[in-house]
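Hello forum,

I keep getting stuck at the same step: I have a sequence, I want structure tokens, and every attempt I make locally crashes halfway through. Rather than fight my setup again tonight, could one of you with a working pipeline run this one for me? It's a single chain of 510 residues.
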Amino acid sequence: MKLSKLFYIPFIIISSYSCSQTKSNSTNVEDGYSEVSTEPFRPQFHFTPKENWMNDPNGMVYYDGEYHLFYQYYPDGTEWGPMHWGHAISTDLVDWEEQDIKLYPDELGYIFSGSAVADHHNTAGFKTGEETPLVAIFTHHHEEKGQVQSLAYSNDKGRTWEKYEGNPVLPNPGIADFRDPKVSWHEQSEKWIMALAVKDVIHLYSSKDLKDWSLESEFGKGIGAKGGVWECPDLFELAGDDGQSKWVMFISINPGAPNGGSGTQYFTGDFDGITFTPEHQEEKWLDWGTDNYAGVTWANIPDKDGRTLFIGWMSNWDYANITPTQKWRSAMTIARELKLVRDGGENIVASLPVGEFYEMLEEVTSAESFDKDQTIALAGKKGFVISLKDISLGENESFKLVNESGENITIQFDNANQKVYLDRSQSGKVDFHEAFASVQEMPLRKKLYKINMDIVVDASSVEVFINEGMYVMTAQVFNTNPFTRFEVHLSENREGDSGMVRIYEAPAIR
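Reply #2:
Ran it on my machine without issues. Output:
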């Protein structure tokens, strides 16, 4: 959640339109999406609100066959404004149905970022019927009184919500940046654990009932990227490919990301119910592209599923308010599965699109065992996936998406310097902000002479996943026409033939 320059809006204004709601109603606002799907830059399979502004994903929880995605939402314009919680529901993490607004600003302030849990043991005492209560833990932001943590709850599978009459449950100790609670159940200690962003560190609190919180420890002093305020933390256990698990701490930062503006750093380590102890002092980056921020994981994923699922806000605070869309602004990344992978003695958090997305793809063309430059015709669709398998690399290779206007995106592998570049400087509309026409770079931990790579393209984005998500870059792009060809440019010093390129058409859900 970003503190915006728009805070000059007097608080009395939000009270007049929010009606100080303590209880939400439930409606589905999907009607009309068939008309907006043809808007310039409207994604075909990434979630966007039908209209107006969206940023951080919030309150992500799974319950009774449904994935809930709440998000920071301003219903009265396409730039950041007084925050509400919007809401969408999916059964497959790809096809999202937008719901009505669930949390409105009130006398305690705007509704900033937070999380949600399924309170199976009714620890907070909110249960009134047969359903397990869903409890949202969020930041109230008041321009004069500061930031506090509050609760809301639902007893009807997330359709309607009521704010707790005892709010706030965690008062402000006199700190300006005191926000974005991510809460999870810690089975070993039988307590709820809250990770809270406090200036440029993370405070860890515990509670038995979600109402009374005790400060347990602090993480982050003197380590990690410190270019800006820390936001949207997440603390979770992640199983490794070697059979061992580690705890992971996600922390979003703005500014201070390696390619400018906002981004998400992480640490791996151990957590004993009180203290998170990192195994490294220097930050790692979840995504080296410019446009994956404030992402966190879903709560209450069933053990039989076993996945750790993630989604992020696909934008950057450098230019988020001025991207060239019309009735709406901002999309979420594709939902991703996180995995812990050992690479060169390090624990790396890898990410790939969820399997449900891959199951929706339809193969349309392929090229096999080529040993020279290739140009593959594309169908001119807004949404598609290019999947490259067993591609041999030399010292310098490039892969390029091009349209009939000459607009292009280039992914370049520079093994000599152990870097990958994503160049969107000629991708279409790039002049709305000086930082957008950029060449983004990602360091490699070692030279890569054989790769797998998935390139996920939608109407205004490209997501690049290399070697099963060990290296990831996400970037918005605003090409004015669909891409019509994919060019592969190979160096002569490669060893062995290249493998296979497959092109898949992605579903046009929007």
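Residues 146 and 174 are 8 Å apart (CA to CA). If your local run keeps crashing, start a new thread with the error log.
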